[in-house]
Amino acid sequence: MGMKAKPHHQHHYNGNGGGGGGGNGSESSSSTSPSPPPSPRRHSSTLSHCRRKLRSKPISVVAGFLLLRRFLRFLVVLPLLYVSGLIMCVGPFSGLVGHTPLPGSVYRSHEMFELLWPHIQADNSTPIELSSVWRYRRKLKEQKPCPPSTAGLQLESPGPSVYLIVEVNGGLNQQRSAICNAVALAGLLNAILVIPNFEFHNVWRDPSTFGDIYDEDHFIATLEGHVKVVKELPEMVLERYDHSIANIPTLRVQAWAPVRYYKGEVYPILQRQGVIRIAPFANRLAMNVPPSIQHLRCLANYEALKFSSPISNLARKLVERMTEKSSRTGRKYVSIHLRFEEDMVAFSCCLYDGGEAENSEMNSIRQKGWGDKFKRKGRVTLPGLNRIDGKCPLTPLEVGMMLRGMGFDNSTSIYLAAGKIYWAEKHLAPLLKMFPYLHTKESLATPDELAPFKGYSSRLAALDYTVCLSSEVFVTTQGGNFPHFLMGHRRFLNGGHAKTIIPDKRKLVVLLHDMGISWKDFKLEMEAMLTESDRKGKIIPRVKKFTKKSSVYSYPLPDCGCLQKHNGTG
User: Fold this and answer.
1) 43-46: long-range contacts at Cβ-Cβ below 8 A with a sequence spacing of 24 or more?
2) Cys staple from 326: which of 22, 69, 384, 413, with CB 3.0 to 4.6 Å?
3) Which whole-number Å values give the CA distances from 358 to 18, 341, 363, 386, in the listed order?
4) Which among 440, 568, 23, 461 is positioned nearest to 208, based on CA atoms?
5) Buried b (16+ CB within 10 A) or exposed e, 114-143
6) How far apart are CA 563 and CA 293, in angstroms?
7) Chain segment 449-461, per-residue pLDDT in tens
8) Taking the model in full, what pTM does it have?
């Protein structure tokens, strides 16, 4: 059953903002990007057949079966109720009812650090060398030539030019995803792509345009011969819509729409109108597309999207300065994407060691940012369960203990990619104790160099992206579009290996809750975690359903392999 395109007129659109709606743009692990289409409804013929068979049985047999099923259901539900009861008692209630908190459910990392710090200082074992962190190698297959540039549907003989307009939202890498998808869709529909418009979003509050972040001329020139790109609609097209893009009907497309949908629903509208506008355009094209269309995504992501001169020039300087400050470790450094800003902490509904002051402040931030979302009737917030389930942002202290446990010593140079850290002075102090050679874009650049970037979150994120891309080791702590795109880019540059540490947070919170663990045992666990990140860094996940596919932005090989001889860091 095909999805229907829903044209809408949105008269509040303007050339700088956005006519289409969108998610909140958050790059947290709780992504608010549109969900994939629901799975097709299963046929009930088997169930009906079973019911017919049951009706033919004697009544006593049916009654016995129902009693047995009810008993088995009771046996399944009882343990769940027990565990739920324990979780409800985590935190301030546990003292009242006498239950011991579940392992990992309470933040005790600061206590663990005080307990183990003397042993960390006294540890004289040989530190890990950055050049030998990654031991697993991916065996690369011989790359096939890139697909031909004539990638479109070729549904009928070429007619008048038709145009595709998309409006993208979110942060830097959600926008990047939408741009690459737009290039692929333009190729699929044999349409001319208009430079994508960036929506202004209340979360990111960044008014940057495409040309502020990316080099427009480079983008257009690189895609020439594959997809034609123009900076704006021609005058004769605008005349048909009274010179207002807002008068162009907006198509609402369901998330992850397949090729057949665009072929059957969107293409006829495009041919009839000569121009279509899709808003919002995050995740509106399925990952499973023909190789020639996938190639357009790769071409856009790794060659056409080059940061604008102001961003790339400063980013290059930051990488050079970071490399110079890493002479103790062979001019190699570790980068950490730390998501411990106050909005991330508030949204996670996790509890740390700030007591009532922290709890009150987080409630205030949640109310200001999300209204009564967290107070709705029936909504239960369980900080202990969130922590056990690995959903709480790691603190700087926890990241530091993990890295010291893995064998990185205090001579390691670290680049910290982050926004404004929540209670920065308090939370960064232990990390600085463990890693005194800690740098940020603010410490590497002069105030005058950073001045043009202040207030532009996507441009600042582009600086972090470039410095992290060039690091020998990248550490992700909370998920989201930034690390997913970065890991994919690192796989593209490093022969298929992400060279990324992905903490097992479910395991880590339990270890950091165990006041009886020795530093030696903690190190063994962290070394095993590093080995697992090394092993997984080169793996391409298998997707069982043939209609689905892993993200080409996170796992670019083998799809993008033909471009590797041309790669660069942008």
Assistant:
1) none
2) 413
3) 36, 13, 9, 17
4) 461
5) eebbeebeebeeebbebeebbeeeeeeeee
6) 14
7) 999 999 999 999 9
8) 0.81
